[in-house]
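Fold sample X.
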Amino acid sequence: MQRDVASEARRLLRVLLVWQRAVPTHTASPGLLPAGTVIPDQRALQEIWYGGRAPSLTLRALAFVYAAAVRLRRLLFDFGIMPRVRLPVPVIVVGNITAGGTGKTPLTIALVEALRARGWKPGVVSRGYGGDARRPLRVDADSHPAIVGDEPCLIARATAAPVVVGRDRAAAARLLLESGEVDVIVADDGLQHYRLRRDVEICVIDGARRFGNGRLLPAGPLREPVERAAAFEFRVCNGGNAQAGEVPMTLHGDEAVLLVSPMRRRLSEFAGTGAHAVAGIANPARFFAQLRAAGIDVTEHPFPDHHAFVAADIGIGDGLPVLMTEKDAVKCAAFAGGSCWYVPVRAALPPEFFDAVAARIRSRAAT
């Protein structure tokens, strides 16, 4: 559940250029590095990152500069030049080291529910990608995805846990603590937000695509060197075959829910008829494959991750059902018609994993 990877690569490169003072801040607009110039388009990047196509010399050179910037930034935090914030409650960070979605949000939801079942009172902080909130903001059932982001809305509605979004996770966490409702904080997608000290790091790995070509952005999908994955206390493998030391996770979703009412249908009831499949997530192919595995003949409608849907995107009008992800549904509920359904998924992990995480934060809370 992440941003369009091509857009993310261009965004990171713009940030890098400004940070290195290669360009002035006011010129670092999206038009500075349009798609297809320095950074290839989405399809070309997928071929380079995961399809065996060699990256250009320009991409490799930019990846070298990016690697130096990542290393320097990490050292600044390690030596205390850039200070970290320690909170009075345990902090769990769920994230990945690749650009694109790996299943962090379903894991965050499952983790919140598992911690609550073990007696904790979890709250969630998130960057709020896709939203335009400029300051820490509490998320509730009535929050608009355009303001707080689609994933925080989904987490808040799925768990009823306190959720705060903010570009500064530490500031968002402080706002969350002011409520007195939480005794452990789960940071959704914050592994690279070094400013917030953490007691547990959970790295989610796409079991099918793994780390791609193993190169750093923009020549590859990695936000950090692949060696960083081995340093995490917990590594969760979403789908595929979990490797040694990894916790297996599977996503299950066998029914669809009508957007305009609580009506539910088994996915198998859509088999044998055509349907439109809409997905504005980082890896739409995963959703399309899920529907085809249920025997549904789908027409694919992929959109960039965190796409701002409008009625025309889902108002296809040929009478066939329109199936979408739950993350997309939170943005489409206001204008969805009677043929629009969403497919919720739940993450399944070994109970021992949640026990180990709870034990780890229990030891932190006791100090």
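Fold sample Y, listed below.
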Amino acid sequence: MAESGGVNYDLTNWPDVDLDRVRTTFREVPLVAYPELARYGRPGIHEALAGQGGLFLASDMAKRLALSPGMRVLDLGCGAGVTSIFLAREYGVTVDAVDAAIPEDLANRAAAAGVGDKVRPIRTDARLLPFDPGAFDAIFSLNSFFYFGTDDLYPPYLISFLKPGGEIVIGCPCYREEITSDTPEELLLEFPACLAVHSPGWWRRHFEKSRSATVLHSALHPRGVEFWEDRVRFLIEEQPPREMPPWKRDMIHAMIRMLNRDAEGMVSHFILHGRKDRIH
């Protein structure tokens, strides 16, 4: 069953907020539910990660992969590379960190984390990957796939970089069901990017029709709505909205409007897990 949503936070005095009201309105993902992340703390779980879920979602994604030291992993759309460092530290894998706008300091941050020899930053477009076919044991993509992966030709292109039997895991914002012409405006995430945000069923069909991989799982995350609330709460606790840059303040305002309107849990997160068929 989909996780229900809907909060009731009064935005009348925005950008002034009642921090006690924020804490009683928006759920916080309990750290005790993720003992593997205890050493990171809440700032480390969210720091430099775009989108919701942070390392909570990343950890749940990684658990679906049969990772072991020495494997080669493609972290696709890695942003600042936080997930690349996380995968290298926690699983001992070698990570190709790919993003079109990868920061210059990723190599130094990886070295400071003790995995400088395991994280290779690569600045390139996700549709122009500079790798040999069958180069990777696994592909990992957090909160970015809908920006570049909705084309019908993309799944088979991407899967070609997996070894036979290799695995892919994707975690992203999603709609519980496909949006329609009468979907409330408040629920349209990052319009027009919202047109590339789909339901778990859509993503399953997207990969299955390519016939390049077997989809083992594609479903709403049980904390999918909670991730949105947790992110709002963390950002407001970290910095009062009145002191935020306008773009950040407006983003959080839009997220709260969405959560206020979304009583049915329409906007959530999903995980897709697939395996490349050995015959390919």
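Sample Y note: The longest strand covers residues 162-175.
Also: The mean pLDDT is 95.
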